[in-house]
Amino acid sequence: MLNDLDERIVHALAEDARRSYADIGQLVGLSAPAVKRRVDRLRATGAITGFTVRVDPSALGWETEGFVEIYCRHNTSPETIRRGLERYQEVVAASTVTGDADAIVQVFASDMRHFERVLERIAGEPFVERTKSVLVLSPLLRRFSSGSPT
After folding, report:
1. Domains in the chain and their CATH numbers?
2. What's the pTM value of the predicted model, to 2 decimals?
């Protein structure tokens, strides 16, 4: 469990992973070396698992986004679903879920035809009984950070 100070450091890094320790220190009231020690500890304990960049999907040619509910055949394990989906570069996130569906998958594609082809390939996986999809018209909110926003 992170304390308030660690949450604020994590939030600052999540907003801009290239932010300096000195800059973060000014935000949270610590020296740069103190921030570095805390970040090192957060990495060592696994609270911070890495640093990354956020890319606008449309800059990569991914203009169409959708979510696919997957309804699996009986006795399909989460590991089987994961192995089946990890081959698709268009699948950017997949989770098992509660409710009628077994999993939900976030898909990015270059256009509607591409999305349809991906959907057909996913539906053809041996573990898939049926799918249900929705397309994103406009993303309203995307949060990439964790921790306290203040």
Report:
1. 4-44 (1.10.10.10), 57-135 (3.30.70.920)
2. 0.78
